[in-house]
Amino acid sequence: MAGVQVSNVSRSFGAHKALDDVSIDFADGGFYALLGPSGSGKTTLLRQIAGFDFPDTGRIAIGGESVEHVPVEKRRIGMVFQNYALFPNMSIAHNIAFGLSVRGEAKATIATEVQRALDLVQLGKLGERRPHQLSGGQRQRVALARAIVTKPRVLLLDEPLGALDKALRVDMQIELKRIQREIGITTIFVTHDQEEALTMSDRIGILRDGRLVQEGPPEEIYDRPKSEFAATFLGDANIFRGDATGNGIRLPDGTAIAAGVGDRLAAGTKASCAVRPERIRIATDAGASSGNANTLKGQVSKRIFAGNNSTYFVERAGQTLKVIVQNTGIDRLAEGQDVMLSWSPESTVLIAAS
Amino acid sequence: MAAQGTSRSGLSSALPLLAPAYLWLTAAIFLPLSAMVFFSFMTDLPLSGKPWAFTLGNYAAFFSQSLYLTLLLASLRLGLEVTLWCVIIGYPAAYVLAKVLKGRSREAIFLLVILPFWSNGLVRIFSWAMVLREGGILDTALNAVLPFKINIDLMYSYPAVIIGLVHSYVPYMVLTCYLTLQAIDDSLIEAGRSLGASRLQVLKRVIIPLSMPGLVAGAALIFVPVVGSFMEPRILGGRTGTFYGTIIEDQFVAVFNWPLGAALSFILLAVVLVILAVASPVLKRAA
Fold first, then answer.
1. What top-level class would CATH report for the domain A4-223?
2. Residue B13 forms part of a structural domain
3. Hey, are the CB atoms on A99 and B201 less than 8 Å from each other?
């Protein structure tokens, strides 16, 4: 097993820059998510690491060894494809045995390893079946078993859960995480599902237009996004735009918003503040700011009830703000009601205008 | 009950759609074929007003003269060789068409592959005669390029028959293999390579097994008509081009012994059916 270093990798397809000077360090044994909208370059990056495609410039190293010109079959990686890519002409056991068999392992070794892999993904008795006889979740497990049975240095997953329905996806997330912990393999997975990225990974890299926007642990990216894009793509955020004041921003209408998180910016430069909807307190009376430094008046325009929580859309100076409230009581606010919003500077992230 | 009712109404509504094809097949194939079966048991054609009787003699003739068996074996060998060459030439082309080329260039190459279908078979064979004979196009061109003198006279030889037949039938192999190769998901190839298999191993273990239905279909489409072929052997093979197909043709066209020709045809049909029946489970297991 080994870490993966991607250094200054660029890749263009014609005039389109799919990857633009991307550097990212995947530590040994970590679970990484590459998150981004479609066309952001996340799959291109994964394919560079796998060796299906080669960078125009830059370096890729697996376990300290340069691999940017090594073809995929010599990189000792394991890959799980979005559509599973199981060989339809082989039984499940033969699918899993494929990597060991092309390597020329002894029959007895292959049999034990295949059984161990089947047990690991809890499909112990299905070895003789054909791929088409399995459900989507089972095929996903077989694809995973096939990828890890060869003891690869790194496991790459391309939107592995994208084809599964919601309930199964949650099961597989837990399962995947368990297996990854059990064998301790460096894992990089591509997803466009932010929830998946947040719940599964140790670190997340957010990509946009071929560039790495931000990289770090999920909590850090969620609590301290460095760009409006990172703030809104990973989770929800209310964005206020104005001029930096030294400890926050001033909105065009003169309202000051204090920010306790983020970079200090020179006064007068264009800046934004991001506030998560669940960090905002919503109340009907003006005195209920409970010591929070940031307060705004607004009017509820819409309420979406979702059982354990409600989302309020609050109109304020031409902007619609989103507030999420846990439904701990029954004191719900009506649409059209005037409200007071308040939140602390610690929940406010100052972001340089992009 | 309900299911039966739907299937019956399904059939009756499908009947107008099926009828033209089946009526045509009955009229165009079944009736003449039945007539041929009938002829094959006759001593002579009733057309000339001569007396005739039923006999098994036409079938017995096949077994009493070793020539027929020899020619049948030669034709089967011809069929095998031509099929093999079509695989060797057609499969790589189909692979490139399905997996390497995209867009315009694929269309262009495709057109070149099916071009033989659009030209008259006889014209095709006579053009080969122009190319292959001594002092022909191939001979002249090679001698113009090569520094030493060589004599190319492939005309009226076994290789000429093979060349002509392969040219006529290779598009079938390309098309059937193209269809199965195109249906193979590219991610299967990538999955194989990510597991450490070289391109050759992926070809052997994944691509060829998955494209076996196309290979089998192409082989059947080529083998059957080649075994009974007579035009290419006669024109390009000359005196060496005597095969089972040309003997049958002789019975109908030259000797006017239709009953024998019909009997020989049905023996060929039986042999081919037996071969396909024996081969199909073997090939199915490989696929």
1. alpha beta
2. no
3. no
Residue from A76, A84, A87, A105 whose CB has the most chain B CBs within 10 Å, to mutate:
A87
Determine which of B187, B193, B194, B199 to mutate to test the interface with A (most A C-beta atoms within 10 Å).
B194
Reported as type and span, the H/E element at residue B279 is helix B258-286
CATH class as words, domain A237-352: mainly beta
3-state class (DSSP) for residue B148: coil
Q: How many domains does chain B have?
A: 1
pLDDT at B193 over 50: yes
Instruction: Determine the distance from the C-alpha atom of residue B5 to the mean position of all C-alpha atoms in its chain, rounded to a whole number.
Output: 43
Whether B188 maps to a domain, the answer reads yes
Q: CB distance B205–A102 less than 8 Å?
A: yes
Q: How confident is the model at residue B1 (pLDDT cuts 50, 70, 90)?
A: very low
Q: What is the mean pLDDT of chain B?
A: 87
For range A165-182, the mean pLDDT: 87
From B185, B192, B196, residue closest to A103, measured CB to CB: B196
For residues A180-201, average pLDDT: 91
Inspect the interface and report whether the beta carbons of B192 and A87 lie closer than 8 Å.
Answer: yes
Specify if B253 maps to a domain.
yes
Cβ neighbors of A324 (< 8 A, separation 6 or more) are A236, A277, A278, A309, A310, A311, A312
Contacts of B285 in chain A (CB under 8 A): none
Residue B134's domain comprises 66-286
DSSP state of B114: H
ipTM of the complex: 0.84
* Nearest chain A residue to B209, by CA: A89
The number of CA neighbours under 13 Å toward the Cβ of A36 is 26
pLDDT confidence of residue B83: 97
pTM: predicted TM-score of the whole model, two decimal places: 0.82
Give the length of chain A.
354
Closest chain A residue by Cα to residue B202: A102
Per-residue pLDDT tens for A254-270? 888 999 888 878 888 89
A150: nearest CA partner in chain B: B195
List the single residue in A82, A87, A99 with the smallest CB-CB distance to B196.
A99
DSSP per residue, A173-235: HHHHHHHHHHHT-EEEEEES-HHHHHHH-SEEEEEETTEEEEEE-HHHHHHS-SSHHHHHHSS
Which residue ranges does chain A devote to CATH 3.40.50.300?
Answer: 4-223
pLDDT surpassing 90 at residue A61:
yes
Report A:34-73 residues touching B (Cβ under 8 A).
Answer: 50, 52, 71-73
**Would you state the pLDDT for residue A155?**
96
Q: pLDDT value at position B273?
A: 92
State the best of A46, A89, A132 to mutate against chain B, taking most chain B CBs within 10 Å: A89
- Chain B CB contacts of A82 under 8 Å are 187
Condensed to tens digits (0 to 9), the pLDDT of residues A113-164 reads: 999 999 988 898 899 999 999 998 899 999 999 999 999 999 999 998 877 8
User: Which of A73, A83, A86 lies nearest to residue B198, judging by beta carbons?
Assistant: A73
**Interface contact flag, B193 A72, Cβ < 8 Å:** yes
Taking the C-alpha atoms of residue B17 and residue B13, their distance in angstroms, rounded to an integer, is: 8
Whether B12 maps to a domain, the answer reads: no
Residues of chain A with CATH 2.40.50.100: 237-352
Query: CATH code at B84?
Result: 1.10.3720.10
